[in-house]
């Protein structure tokens, strides 16, 4: 296949996310209704499904995709939606997830740990910290930290 054709096809999906539900299948119609309602304030997107329980979330802009990633993790009916960036040349049936980001709630944190470095060090015991939520970052609620 000529590279120009592949590049044009990839451009359509360049702001897409790939996801699946951990442990349970969610019907497509329900998923679509719930997530469009949750995500539509960020911008325009469409949801597509593959037969193997993999979903593609095609975002019109990079900012929409980034908003979805930054405001997760997402659940539908209490079932976690694992998301990652779409990559070129990966068939839908072979989409692999080797890591799944999750929010961790840290409780009973001494006040001296309430710095970015302190919370990062605590969270690193569980994995590689990626983000902290806004309430944790600005210390609005100090009864727990979400990282």
TrEMBL record:
It comes from the Eukaryota. The lineage of its organism: Eukaryota, Viridiplantae, Streptophyta, Embryophyta, Tracheophyta. Residues 10-89 form the DUF4283 domain. InterPro entries: At4g02000-like, DUF4283. This is DUF4283 domain-containing protein.
């Amino acid at each position: 296949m000529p590279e120009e054709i592949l590049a044009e096809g990839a451009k359509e999906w360049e702001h897409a996310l790939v996801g699946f539900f951990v442990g349970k299948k969610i019907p497509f119609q329900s998923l679509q209704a719930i997530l469009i309602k949750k995500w539509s304030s960020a911008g325009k997107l469409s949801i597509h499904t593959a037969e193997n329980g993999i979903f593609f979330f095609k975002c019109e802009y990079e900012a929409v995709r980034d908003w979805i990633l930054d405001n997760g993790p997402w659940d539908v009916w209490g079932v976690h939606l694992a998301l990652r960036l779409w990559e070129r040349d990966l068939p839908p049936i072979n989409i692999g997830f080797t890591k799944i980001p999750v929010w961790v709630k840290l409780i009973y944190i001494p006040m001296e740990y309430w710095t970015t470095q302190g919370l990062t060090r605590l969270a690193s015991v569980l994995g590689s910290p990626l983000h902290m939520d806004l309430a944790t970052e600005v210390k609005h609620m100090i009864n727990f930290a979400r990282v």
